[in-house]
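Posting this for the archive.
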Amino acid sequence: MNKLIIILIVVAAIGGGVAAYYMRKSTPEPTVTTLQLTRGDVVDSVGATGTLGAVETVDVGTQVSGTVQELYADFNSIVRKGQVIARLDPSLLQTNIEQQRANVTRSQADLERLRVNLADARRKRDQASQLWDKQLIPRDQFETAELNVKTQEAQLRSGEAGLVQSRSLLNTAQVNLGHTVIRAPIDGIVISRNVDQGQTVAASMNAPTLFVLAADLTKMQVLANIDEADVGRIRPGQPVSFRVDAYPTDSFTGTVSQVRLQPTTVQNVVTYSTVISVPNPDLRLKPGMTASPLTIEIMRKNNVLRAPNAALRFRPSNDLFAALKQEVPPEMQRGGRGGPGASPARGQAGPGAGPQQAAATSPGDRPAAPPAAAATAPRPRERRDRPAQAASDGPGARAQGGGGSTGPPREDRAAGGGEGRRGGGFANMTPEEREARRKQFEERMKNMSPEDRERMQARMREGGGRGGGRGGGPGIRPGGDRAAVAPQGNARPERRPAAAAPTTGIASTGATTIDALFAPLPVVEGRGRVWLFLAKQLKPVAVRTGISDGTWTEIIESAENAPLKEGTDVVTNATTGLEQQSRPGQQGAGSNPLMGGQRGNQPRGGTPGGVGGRGR
């Protein structure tokens, strides 16, 4: 009996161990995907298409009608200024010249006859005057003699005008005869010939085009159509690269020379023509070629530390922290959308927020809360993200303000994005954080240009020292003293009216083109967060970001306690593995991506930043 009991105990122990093993094995481990930080070039660019053309083209036409008698130039002919390139049949114009010469001769003869008549009328008037003095003729005869003189003088003037008119008609006929010889107006190359020998051209209303000359094909230009969403970032002098189908392996370069203000609307799409100057010393580029893809380089950073955009978009979820048996980091508990400085009046949790306040943060960063607290706590109103700052705010404002950053999409505000919007956020910081933020702000002020520093100080004076999100510093005045904390609740500090800017017209600037008046592009700088996977634990690292090319984003600097360098692995995606078990055989609304609720095929590890890298 004792032996049977021992056997049953051994069998039960073995079965329990096997069951525990399979239960442990059935729980999948989280899968974390990472990519490395690299060094390289980051180029912010705008894509477009364009058409190549000569810088200067001239249409050569004819002012007279006639038949093309001779052609002295053909396609691709190199011609010089004044060179004869075509000749029209001059026979009709020569006949017209002979007629006009005959008219001139007749006008001259008529003028001589009128001069003789005038001399005879004057002689008769003199005789009548002598007889009238002696009272030998009546007064009517004397007045008639004077009237004949005046009549002959008027006819003489009319004859002189007729002679001038005949000579002008003769000159016109001679000029038209000269127009039958077509000469090149410029030095260039014939890129188009529109007539053949023997063809009749009629210059009635419009001058027909015989040739099209290109001034110099060693200098070309591309007319690119830039979308209205991108034209605000185009400036003269920006480098351009493009390819053509004729040379698919070669890349050509150019420079933006002009942004034309006349819009073109095609199917409700508004574009603006941008002129790009392109050198063509080897004459490989031909007029009419399509430049595609055409890339306008807005901003470039060479050999900088860069992170994949997927790493900056990644947001871990509470399920992932639970699967890793890791507590939610304080950055996720106190910031949410509003960052560490979110105001209690808005409902965001601060550093010392309780469970109810922590449960009211944004969905992506919400820590686990007790069910009872989550059910009873009222849902606070989420504060809206403020729009990005204007270009005049300067780099310092972008570095410190959370809502005004222009870095990668939706950077985590917990890294310092909202501390200056309300006074409570800065007050909730630790003394070390306050001192570090104050030093960082003073360093930003030193690196600013005088104009940007003056604008920032004016905004801070105007806003009563609220600073932070708009002014660029965490509640610190330009002199270095801490500003007064903004009142909580519905109370708002009094705002002083902004001083009116002096109005100046474009004519007073002295600029010759509108391109010279375009404002310079602002410095791109923002904030974000990347996650490291060390010892099977997620670690957040706040970073300051620069420009992005859609795939990589420049990392300007990282937190002092976690410096990033080339080769550091950053998380781009993570899954808990639970969704893999729920996929087989799962039917109904939960597996339909078009239905609401928890979807069976959606990763539960967090907001994915992208695909790729290696898993751990």
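Residues 329 and 474 are 23 Å apart (CA to CA). The chain has 14 helices and 22 strands.
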